[in-house]
Design goal:
Shape: globular
Distance between the termini: 31 Å
Largest sheet: 5 strands, antiparallel
Number of helices: 2
Structural class: alpha+beta
Radius of gyration: 16 Å
């Protein structure tokens, strides 16, 4: 990426997140809610948001969204999503958020 000579790039320090500290927050929402949901997650998590996966649900206008976030942010993000998106349905296992499966090499 070429920048104008007068523009300087600013590097923000990234926080180190270890794989055991990550959780998948899986939920389904209406298709129109995907962009505002991603914006909310990015605003709340910042650089701690590792990735977002979006997949269409078959025979429905709903989509499945998975947010990979640190364990410490799982509850606050889930509470904010529940407050802002009345149509959100969380996929939880035994009331807890799913730990991120180990990476295959």
């Amino acid at each position: 990426m070429l920048l104008h000579p007068s523009k300087k790039t600013v590097r923000h320090p990234r926080t180190q997140v270890f794989p055991g500290d990550l959780r998948l927050l899986a939920l389904t929402v209406e298709g129109a809610s995907v962009l505002p949901l991603r914006q909310l997650a990015a605003r709340l998590c910042g650089d701690a948001l590792q990735f977002t996966r979006v997949a269409a649900c078959p025979d429905s206008r709903r989509v499945r969204v998975c947010l990979c976030i640190p364990k410490s942010l799982a509850e606050p993000v889930a509470a904010a999503v529940a407050r802002c998106f009345a149509d959100a349905v969380f996929d939880q296992t035994d009331g807890a958020f799913q730990p991120l499966p180990p990476r295959r090499h």
